[in-house]
Amino acid sequence: GGGRHAALTFYCNGCARCSLAPITAQAKPLVGGSFGVVFLNRGGNQSNTVANITLDFATLPGVATGAAFSATDLWADDKRLGVFLSHLSAQVAPASAAFYKLTPTNL
Known about the structure:
By secondary structure, the protein is mostly beta strands. Helix content is 0%, strand content 50%. It is built from no helices and eight strands.
């Protein structure tokens, strides 16, 4: 069955003259307290704007402020990125995406 998922939307706040499509981070709970997370930069190639997207872990369902997660980049041959406290950030090129698995950890 489908679980709850967090859908978070971030918009360009750097300039009033651009018309970028939304930049989003979406998360879906997985077994064992993990989350699948995708960062999307739907800005077209013409904008050439790399988006700095941040996911605050406290916005995820059932996750407390200050939580730590181990992050794995699923599109980089499951490269382990390390342990992150409170948030995960990534730079995403225009018309691109990044896909991660977050696994809860105790520091």
